[in-house]
Amino acid sequence: MTDNKKSFYYRPKTNQSSSPTIRWTFVTLGWLFFVLGIIGILLPVMPTAPFVLLAAACWARSSRRFHFWLINHKYFGKYVRDWEENHAVPRYAKWLATLMMGFSTAMLFYRLPADMLWVAWAIALVCSGVAIYLFRLPNAK
C-alpha cells in the first residue's frame, strides 16, 4: 500500500489492554455485538447502531486490526467515526429511531392485555428518555 492510499484511511485511537485475557474477552464481545448488529439489519425489532458501536468500543480496547476494519467499513465506518470523534448521530437516524420506538410502543399498548399495560408504560418511559438523549446529541455531517 502506498503512502497516498494510507492517508485516505481514518486512523483510530485505540486503548488496548496489556492483558491477553481482557483483550480476548473484548475481541469476543466485539464479534458478538457485531453479529447482533448484522441481525438487527434483518430484524425490525433489533437495533443495529448500538451493537455496531459496542463492537467498535470493544475492538478499540482489544484489536487494532478489527477496529481499523470497522471504522473504514463501507457501510458502518462513517457512523462509527462520527460517534468516536463527536458523539454525533445523523438527523435521519434520530427520527427513524424515534419513529420505530413510537410504533413499537404503540403496538404494545394495542396488543398487551389491560393488566399488563404497566409494561407498555415502562417501555414508553424508557423510549422517551432515549429519544430525548438522541436529540440532545449533535447532528452528524
Short description:
The chain is mostly helical. Helix content is 71%, strand content 0%.
Question: What does this protein structure show overall?
Answer:
- The protein has 141 residues and is mainly alpha-helical.
- It folds into 2 domains: 3-86, no CATH class; 91-136.
- Residues 1-7 have low confidence and may be disordered.
- 71% of the residues lie in helices and 0% in strands.
- It starts with a helix and ends in a 5-residue tail after the last helix.
Order of H and E elements: HHHHHHH
Q: Mind summarizing the main beta sheet? A: none
Helix fraction, binned, reads: over 70%
What is the helix tally? 7
Domain count: the total is 2
What portion of the residues fall into strands of 2 or more residues? under 5%
Uncertain regions spanning at least 5 consecutive residues: 1-7
Structural class by secondary-structure content: mainly alpha
Alpha-carbon Rg, integer: 18 Å
Count of distinct strands: 0
| Shape field | globular
In angstroms, what separates the terminal alpha carbons?
29 Å
Mean of all residue-level pLDDT scores: 87
List the main descriptive attributes of the protein structure presented here:
141 residues, disordered N terminus, transmembrane, 2 domains, mainly alpha
Question: How are the elements arranged and paired?
Answer:
Elements: H1 3-8, H2 20-42, H3 49-60, H4 64-71, H5 77-86, H6 91-111, H7 117-136
